[in-house]
Automatic annotation (TrEMBL):
NCBIfam families with a match to the protein in the record: ATPsyn_F1gamma
Subcellular location as annotated: Cell membrane; Membrane
Pfam short name (any one): ATP-synt
Entry's family note: Belongs to the ATPase gamma chain family.
Natural source organism: Dictyobacter formicarum
Gene3D superfamilies referenced in this protein's UniProt entry, alphabetically: 3.40.1380.10, ATP synthase, gamma subunit, helix hairpin domain (1.10.287.80)
Keywords from the UniProt entry: ATP synthesis, Cell membrane, CF(1), Hydrogen ion transport, Ion transport, Membrane, Transport
Highest rank taxon of the organism: Bacteria
Quaternary state and interactors: F-type ATPases have 2 components, CF(1) - the catalytic core - and CF(0) - the membrane proton channel. CF(1) has five subunits: alpha(3), beta(3), gamma(1), delta(1), epsilon(1). CF(0) has three main subunits: a, b and c.
Protein name according to UniProt: ATP synthase gamma chain
């Protein structure tokens, strides 16, 4: 059994660890609130641009049957190479979040490859890693790294998303990849972050929901586009891709901070439980030592 000195040293060490994890929990909590606010502020804009792209796609398609052939970002072609933009945390101490995202990306690639292999194709897979955890996962498993973006910080900007989207768009336009998927962790709430997969390229205009269509029929609002729907649609498509990547990065940052806060809270609780157990063990050892000393004194007195 360890001595009281060793137990005291271990209690002191665990207390210091608990202080560190508590401080990290408070920092992550503060950052999570700010990240959550940015996500909530960006979602209405993303929803509006999705609605605008959907409306423009419908109006432009009615005006021109060759719209898909004219716009390179809309072209569907046989899939020979798959591109995956993997957005993962830059740092650890996030619990199982990085592993869940990486597994989801690998599962997406495997499912798509299996689906295409049933059609007689054998596609290659290339990754654009955003974040160190995803990059390390791709390199460790030798999955084919096309580009990497790290150190995007706690406040990613639209310029960061534009740079990432430009790499994916260039690869798609050059024919290096025929379809691009976006994999990230969607922020649901503090304890729930769901890995999701979204097709980034070729662009698929959002489908209108029945409820939205009914509301629009009631409103019966008509829009006038200048110069025309096709021109605006062509100019808006690259921006739409940038917004998809930017929204995914904001969701990923909020998910990372919430996962880190929960992980640090669990670590702090475990450290406090360990301190209680060690304190109980320390008291038992000290009581046993005192009892032994009393017995020795009594035995010595009886011997005299």
């Amino acid at each position: 059994m360890p001595s009281t000195r060793e137990i005291r040293q271990r209690i002191r060490s665990v207390k210091n660890t608990a202080k560190i994890t508590k401080a990290m929990q408070m920092v992550a909590s503060s950052k999570m609130r700010r990240a959550q606010e940015r996500v909530e502020q960006a979602r209405p804009f993303a929803d509006q641009i999705r609605e605008l792209v959907s409306r423009l796609a419908t109006a432009a398609s009615n005006g021109s049957d060759d719209l898909v052939e004219d716009l390179a970002l809309l072209k569907q072609r046989p899939v020979r190479n798959i591109g995956i933009v993997l957005i993962s945390p830059d740092r650890g101490l996030c619990g199982a979040l990085p592993s869940n995202i990486n597994r989801h990306a690998a599962l997406t690639a495997r499912n798509e490859s299996q689906r295409l292999s049933e059609q007689g194709r054998s596609p290659g897979v290339e990754y654009i890693a955003v974040g160190r955890k995803g990059r390390d996962f791709v390199i460790r498993n030798d999955l084919g790294l096309a580009a990497e973006f790290t150190n995007y910080g706690d406040r990613p900007g639209l310029s960061d998303a534009t740079a990432i989207a430009k790499v994916a768009v260039d690869a798609f336009l050059k024919g290096e990849v025929d379809v691009v998927y976006l994999v990230y962790a969607k922020f649901v709430n503090t304890v729930t972050q769901t890995p999701v997969t979204v097709q980034l390229l070729p662009v698929q205009p959002p489908e209108k929901k029945e409820e939205d269509e009914q509301e629009k029929k009631k409103q019966a609002t008509e829009y006038i586009y200048e110069p025309n729907e096709q021109t605006i649609f062509k100019a808006l498509l690259p921006r739409y891709v940038d917004i998809l990547v930017y929204q995914a990065m904001l969701e990923a940052v909020a998910s990372q901070q919430s996962a880190q806060m929960v992980a640090m809270k669990n670590a702090t609780d475990n450290a406090n439980e360990l301190i209680q157990d060690l304190t109980l063990t320390y008291n038992k050892v000290r009581q046993a030592a005192i009892t032994t000393q009393i017995l020795e004194v009594v035995a010595g007195a009886e011997a005299l």
